């Protein structure tokens, strides 16, 4: 398009709160462009006047040379005959009229420039724990309303001093319109509090005393960007064990924070991709393989080959390590099990009494609590365990109008999703919907994000499980239609959307629990379909779970049922394996015979639990997924054993079904022969891979005309061995394989699939 002397430019994307207007101002000055730039509810509007050549260069720079945190999704350039003859280029006041289509800015780790200033004794922000600029600092967690301007954030109460105001108003300064801008004289301040609420000390003294306390083995609740962490010296085994004891978290791995990447490299084996993630603006917790270094005691991540590590992502974190007598800190979420993130001082006193020794807090309030994101790299691919800080609420873009569709997500690892135009906003990690506090947190965050994106829920998608909390909540919301979505279909479509696949394809879904169309518990599924519909082609055979949810928490129950259901001489094996549970075995036998409180299940997660208990790796789970995780930690994805346990793929009721009888018998024989535990675990893992491949190959043999694309979803694909080898074998057999990249393969990605399925069904109904 030929550019005239005047153009109007609309830029959409992550372009507010990231230094975009100062960036536009600087390139306008460079190319002698006159006009204005303005934030509004749609993005950024620019009026530019200049020569055609300069305008061309200006637009090219605008699109190709963006600030650190910016992300441009769309640029619309429109020539205009109106020439206002601007004499300067100015940044004008934001326009708050109209409906919002903004991409809400995300929180970002402290940038190198701010760290340099904070550690410079001559700088007036020396040692200031709330230093920030347009390239770093809090965003989403402090926003009260849009557009993103200081009066609509929790920084509203802090009046800028002359020095900060001068930087804020200077279009060429790095802090121009940096909404959280602050310094020691006008910004937030630290306070060290006792657990009785007494102020011990404030300011820099609070920081120094906190460091001394941590060095002496104390446990301190520390306020970050999105909420409170519990911190202690990770190298002090006594302190770590005391933290576990107080929090009643005996075995769950604890994340650690180290000041420098060099320290992390001493205790782990980092790949280049993992190094890049640690250094990124998102600064997530990265789950990496430990090495044999003795700096970190085993009790930090007991029985694990991996550990969650992160670098300081706030100025406060960075300062906690400066001139400190420790190298690594435990930095774990402070919330009690089953409750949302703690982020207000008054919560800390009630929930952490008897757990924390002191509290390091500040008067900068958190509007929206937000957990740390957790990721890992498998086969050089990014995989989310939890998508939160640094990524939420960045939208997904699709080429379908899904406006007004809201998905409420699953019961566990809950996230919700909101459709606006062709954007899908996935909310923060909520957690498990099992308490009043979590439900209130869910509703609070859903209400705010819906208000920000400017839509009302016309269609609501929920899980098909009749007893999920989200199903009950949907019935209380005003909408035109509620659509119930099968759990594994949502997994399937979530991975399709994650990879922009539209054509119907295969889906292998491996997870722990999902309510099936037949009323049983699914979780080892072969599906074929798209967002509009799906067909269940095959699954793992069912067996009873005695006690239902109790068998999930106590995998030994699951193990007893697995053996009794698949092995004629199973009782004899069980009496040898569990001699101390004779009466319990008899009780479970009666439960199975009488079909008492023993729902039928065929899930990958529960099979892993049962094998973990049979091998005496974990018979009681102290946290979600512990038995399966500890079993998987004994594998090595680089090793591929020559044999595996036998199984059969049979036809049953028009479906392909994996029979476990041969596998269970052979597994028990290996246990009885005292075969090396690691070899049994490796054989079992290969068996699961062979089961998936065998099921798919049998289905394709019956229907060779089907699309050979296959998506992999479900929480079991966090297992490095399953992920690596199943992808490899599927590709070797001619299938095109797609895995999750932007949302978790676990239930944290289910809301994305729910929303797109609801959209397809709504559109289809309109077209009928």
Question: What this model shows, in words?
Answer:
The protein is an alpha/beta fold and 768 residues long. Among the domains are: 6-91, Alpha-Beta Plaits, CATH 3.30.70; 190-374, DHBP synthase; 538-738, ATPase, nucleotide binding domain (Nucleotidyltransferase, domain 5). The two termini are 41 Å apart.
SSE map:
Elements: E1 6-14, H1 20-30, E2 34-40, E3 43-49, H2 52-64, E4 71-79, E5 89-91, H3 112-118, H4 162-169, E6 190-194, E7 199-202, H5 203-215, E8 220-223, E9 228-233, H6 237-247, E10 256-258, H7 261-267, H8 272-279, E11 285-289, E12 306-310, H9 315-321, E13 328-333, H10 345-351, E14 358-362, E15 374-378, E16 381-386, E17 396-397, E18 405-407, E19 417-420, E20 423-426, H11 436-453, E21 459-463, H12 469-475, E22 481-485, H13 487-498, E23 505-515, E24 521-529, E25 534-540, E26 543-544, H14 549-553, H15 555-566, H16 570-577, H17 582-594, E27 600-603, H18 604-614, H19 626-632, E28 648-652, E29 655-659, H20 661-672, H21 677-702, E30 709-713, H22 720-732, E31 736-738, H23 750-767
Parallel strand pairs: 2-5, 8-14, 10-12, 11-15, 18-21, 21-22, 23-30, 24-27, 25-29, 30-31
Antiparallel strand pairs: 1-3, 1-4, 2-3, 6-7, 6-14, 8-9, 9-13, 10-13, 11-12, 15-16, 17-20, 18-19, 19-20, 23-24, 24-25, 26-27, 28-29
């Amino acid at each position: 398009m030929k550019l005239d002397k005047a153009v109007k430019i609309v830029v959409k994307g992550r372009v507010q709160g990231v230094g975009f207007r100062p960036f536009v101002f600087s390139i306008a000055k460079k190319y002698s462009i006159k006009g204005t730039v303005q934030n509004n509810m749609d993005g950024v509007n620019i009026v530019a006047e200049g020569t055609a050549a300069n305008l061309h260069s200006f637009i090219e720079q605008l699109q190709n040379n963006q600030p650190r945190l910016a992300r441009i999704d769309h640029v619309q350039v429109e020539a205009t005959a109106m020439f206002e003859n601007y004499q300067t280029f100015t940044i004008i006041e934001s326009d708050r009229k109209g409906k919002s289509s903004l991409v809400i800015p995300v929180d970002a780790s402290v940038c190198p420039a701010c760290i340099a200033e904070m550690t410079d004794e001559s700088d007036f922000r020396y040692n200031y724990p709330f230093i920030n600029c347009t390239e770093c600092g809090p965003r989403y967690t402090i926003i009260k309303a849009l557009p993103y301007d200081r009066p609509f954030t929790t920084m509203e109460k802090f009046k800028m001093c002359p020095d900060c105001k001068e930087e804020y108003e200077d279009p060429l300064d790095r802090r121009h319109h940096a909404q959280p801008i602050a310094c020691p004289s006008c910004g937030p301040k630290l306070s060290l509090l006792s657990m009785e609420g007494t102020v011990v000390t404030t300011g820099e003294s609070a920081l120094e005393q906190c460091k001394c306390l941590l060095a002496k083995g104390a446990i301190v609740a520390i306020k970050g960007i999105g909420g409170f962490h519990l911190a202690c010296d990770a190298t002090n085994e006594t302190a770590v064990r005391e933290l576990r004891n107080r929090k009643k978290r005996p075995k769950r791995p604890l994340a650690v924070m180290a000041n420098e990447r060099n320290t992390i490299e001493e205790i782990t084996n980092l790949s280049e991709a993992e190094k890049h993630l640690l250094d990124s603006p998102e600064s997530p917790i990265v789950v990496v393989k430990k090495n044999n270094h003795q700096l970190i005691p085993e009790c930090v991540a007991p029985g694990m080959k991996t550990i969650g590590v992160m670098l300081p992502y706030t100025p406060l974190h960075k300062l906690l390590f400066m001139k400190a007598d420790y190298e690594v800190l435990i930095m774990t979420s402070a919330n009690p099990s089953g409750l949302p993130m703690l982020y207000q001082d008054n919560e800390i006193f009630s929930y952490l009494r008897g757990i924390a020794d002191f509290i390091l807090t500040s008067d900068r309030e958190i509007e929206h609590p937000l957990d740390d994101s957790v990721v890992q790299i498998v086969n050089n691919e990014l995989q989310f365990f939890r998508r939160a800080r640094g990524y939420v609420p960045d939208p997904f873009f699709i080429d379908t109008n899904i406006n007004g569709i809201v998905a409420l997500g699953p019961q566990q690892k809950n996230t919700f999703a909101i459709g606006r135009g062709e954007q899908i906003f996935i909310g923060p990690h909520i957690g498990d919907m099992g308490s009043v506090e979590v439900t209130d947190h869910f509703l609070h965050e859903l209400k705010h994000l819906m208000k920000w994106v400017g839509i009302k829920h016309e269609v609501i998608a929920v899980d098909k499980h009749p007893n999920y909390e989200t199903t009950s909540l949907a019935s209380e919301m005003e909408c035109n239609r509620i659509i119930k979505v099968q759990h594994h279909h949502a997994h399937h479509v979530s991975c399709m959307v994650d990879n922009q696949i539209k054509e119907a394809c295969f889906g292998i879904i491996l997870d722990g629990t999902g309510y099936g169309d037949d009323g049983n518990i699914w979780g080892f599924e072969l599906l074929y379909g798209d967002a509009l519909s799906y067909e269940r082609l095959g699954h793992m055979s069912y067996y009873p779970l005695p006690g239902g949810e109790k068998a999930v928490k106590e995998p030994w129950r699951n193990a007893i049922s697995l053996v009794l259901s698949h092995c004629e001489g199973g009782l004899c094996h069980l009496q040898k394996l569990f001699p101390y549970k004779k009466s319990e075995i008899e009780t479970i036998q009666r439960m199975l015979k009488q079909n008492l409180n023993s729902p039928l299940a065929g899930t990958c997660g529960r099979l892993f639990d049962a094998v973990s208990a049979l091998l005496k790796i974990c018979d009681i789970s102290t946290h979600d997924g512990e038995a399966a995780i500890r079993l998987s930690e004994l594998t090595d994805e680089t090793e591929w054993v020559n044999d595996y346990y036998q199984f059969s793929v049979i036809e049953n009721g028009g479906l392909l079904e994996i029979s476990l009888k041969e596998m269970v018998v052979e597994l028990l024989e290996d246990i009885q022969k005292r075969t090396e535990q690691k070899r049994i675990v490796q054989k079992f893992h290969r068996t699961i891979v062979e089961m998936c491949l065998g099921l798919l190959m049998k289905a394709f043999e019956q229907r060779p005309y089907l699309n050979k694309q296959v998506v992999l979803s479900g929480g079991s694909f966090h297992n490095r061995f399953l992920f690596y080898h199943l992808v490899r074998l599927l590709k070797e057999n001619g299938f095109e394989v797609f895995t999750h990249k932007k949302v978790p393969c676990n239930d944290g990605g289910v809301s994305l699939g729910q929303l797109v399925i609801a959209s397809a069904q709504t559109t289809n109904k309109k077209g009928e």
